[in-house]
Amino acid sequence: MNNLCVDIGFRSLIKYGEELCGDCVQTARIEKDDTQILVLADGLGSGVKANILSTLTAQILSTMMSAQMSIDECVETMAATLPVCSKRGVAYSTFTIICVRNNERVDIIQYDNPMVIMLRGGKNYEYPRTMRTIGGKKIYESSIELEQDDVFIAMSDGAIYAGVGMVLNYGWQRENIVAYIESRYDVKMTAKIITSLILDECDRLYDSRPGDDTTVATVQIRKRKPANLVIGPPRNPEDDKVMMERFFSLEGRHIICGGTTSHIAANYLGKELVPSIDYEDPTVPPTATIEGVDLVTEGVITLSRVLEYAEDYLEKNEYYELWDKKNDGASKIARLLFKEATDITFFVGQAVNPAHQNPDLPINFNIKRQIIHDLASCLEKMGKRISVEYF
Description:
It is built from ten helices and 18 strands. With about 400 residues, it is an alpha+beta fold. It has a six-stranded antiparallel sheet with strand order 2-3-4-5-9-8.
């Protein structure tokens, strides 16, 4: 196993006036040979029928690819399964498949969607493509040896039609999208941020009234970066040392959340806990510092805000400008977990905090565990590898 991993981010705009998106993205993972699969399907037309076509296509292709079936079998099965449009007489959904194998090679299979954009070193990279016909469909295939920080951007055709008849005569062509992302690319960007940059510009060109379903899906090859977060003292005080030994033994960033936990860590390290009185955001408690620790914050209130940011990040990503630039504890944790870390270990102490037993506070014994559970779930959906240890 190499030291690389896959970061995936995708978002869609729904055609103006419709309730359902006619595009669908599905992801799958084959654990035994560390293969990750992304399928972006664009159903014929828009609305309910397009949604059904794209969903069936994406599910069929991701399931069969996960079963390591050939692309010939996948396409033939898809064509035989999709319902036929009564008006057009065809069962039609375009698709793009990106299959990353062991973080060493990527196979790209494309049918009638805009060609995948590949960035290498932040610049457009013209990768090889071969064309063959399967079941009457022209399929383009590519196989590329991977390098760290390679980026692959798949799109439905709503992206290249953005702005047609409005601010652009011929839409936002693929070469325009390439130039746009090249000029804004930063190696620190996550796949979701790259996706959001492009999709937000599509929305602007459409004047927030998309003329077609528009989807962008980004696959990024990153170096693994571990992070560790501890919150709460152990149920048994005699386990303080055991938890801290385990926490600090792991490589990567170290984040400590909670007042009692911070004191335990400071005592274990033999260092001073230095609190801050700066309130950049009055709704988020201030941070502190301990020599040798990357970040020290308050516990439940701060992580509740991080969870709010995480849930938004997976959807519209509207809070990005907040947590990406602010320096309160929640924003710093969000940057570390969302943008930097790829493998995250949570250490959760199960002692009852007496302060949380006040009936006037909206906090109870179970809320800490629930926040960690929900946050871990969000991070897994971001493509992170998550481990949770209880003490």
